[in-house]
Specification:
This protein is α+β, with helices and mostly antiparallel strands and 513 residues long. It has 3 domains: 86 residues, Arc Repressor Mutant, subunit A (Orthogonal Bundle), CATH 1.10.10; 120 residues, Winged helix-like DNA-binding domain superfamily/Winged helix DNA-binding domain (Arc Repressor Mutant, subunit A); 253 residues, 2-Layer Sandwich (BirA Bifunctional Protein, domain 2), CATH 3.30.930.10. Bound molecules: phenylalanine. Phenylalanine binds next to strand 15 and strand 16.
Amino acid sequence: MSEDIKKTINELHIYEKKLLKELEANPKATPEEIAENTGMDIKSVMSAAGSLASKDIIDVDKEVEETYSLTEDGLKYADEGLPERRILDVLAEKKQIHMKDLSSETGVDKKEANIAIGWLRRKNWAQIDKGVVNITDFGKEFTSKVGVDEKVLDYLKTNADGVKLFTDDLKDGFKKLAGRKNILNVKKETSHSFNILPKGEDILNEGFTIQKQATQLTHQQLKDGEWKSLQYRPYDINAEAPVFFAGKKHPLRVIIDEIREIFLNMGFSEDKGSYVESAFWNFDSLFQPQDHAAREMQDTFYLKNPLTCDLPDDNLVKLTAETHENGGGTGSIGWQYDWNEDIARQSVLRTHTTGISTKHLFEHEPPIKMFSVGRVFRRETFDYKHLPEFHQVEGLVCDEKISFQNLLGTLKEFYKKLGFEVRFRPAYFPYTYLSTETEIYLEEKESWIELGGAGMFRPEVLKPLGITQPALAFGLGIERLAMIRYDVSDIRMLYKSDIKWLRELNLANGVKL
Ligand SMILES: N[C@@H](Cc1ccccc1)C(=O)O
């Protein structure tokens, strides 16, 4: 028990302590008095009280007090009499008045006269018969009496500061007046009073000192040793705190940067291509025949502007043409068709980043270790795993002793560093042999999905580029990795700008906050 009390005391704010002490000395003190006596402002008193109340240390009572006074109309009635009284006075003489003459005969204006008729009937001072107002016997008697409501009217007039409570003999009259529109004003005032509860008594019995508590240390306090004598207010580490959403990188950007870092660390250098590429680099340099299905409009975006691109070095074009037509000097018989320069000039949105690899091979001497990350474009229909625009990371290693083993090892290592386990299966690409595809298992869909392709560039690719050493190459999709990392079952989520998802996503491990 006492341990509890000590802990509670320990956690009291200095304002709470001040308020409690003041209440002990002055149990009836109002918040205003407490503010005055402790030097706190009223807001701090009220918030300290609220805090003490939430811990059952004191009780806060709220009382609303109403003060009544007369409105402008009310004051006028108090001076001149209620409209029904003024009519009654005239009726006492005339006995009856025609409705249409009511206002002119009595001096009560039309609007008020209408209201007065209701009250004349209700008070049984008059009756209306065929448009004529007749005084009743009760009305006659009443001319010399004062009604309860009229007494209250008078009372309020003499108590111009307002009345809080009506004595019993005035209560009925007050109710009547209060029921009429525009006669009474009411001002509401709330007042608070505090009571010490048993727990508060225990705290006071236990006793405490009021000492300024340190919430923040200053450089000076640390330097001069004052920190040793300060009293610290403990804080509740379990208290609910607002969640802040700081700006951060897009999840896709995060994974792209991670991939770049992995390749840089593995000793690759980075190259860049452009979205718009000639069919020559995108297809022809990769020994893809000009009637290849992938080149068709359904798969590839062809551009109107620029409609064509320049072809590279004449000799390279010549060697490429020969290789396509009959294998040139590669030992292959080629595709056995007439290679067309104009088809090679067409400009396309690159369908993969592999054109960067062939260009890189043409422009560099082995040994080569190159990677490149970028967007590629395909005429795909959207679905949970397809986008017409996505990112690939391209890789190329070319040196004397490079083998298919190295390719598998490189890929395995890369995926492992990203935290994925993949499987390889045989595949076909016109530009590689051996070729493979990497796949990953999607638990939710209970199926393997393809992550990318890879292989050893064929001599038909390498020879025209002037390369005699073997080269491994790969082109891997990035969005599908992001999908798995961030646990989204639909690839479109990555491009939706769903602010809630983006905010709550923990980028480090894909787990929601
Ligand atoms: N370019 C292929 C991948 C690939 C790259 C390099 C070698 C072999 C295959 C694709 O986009 O799917």
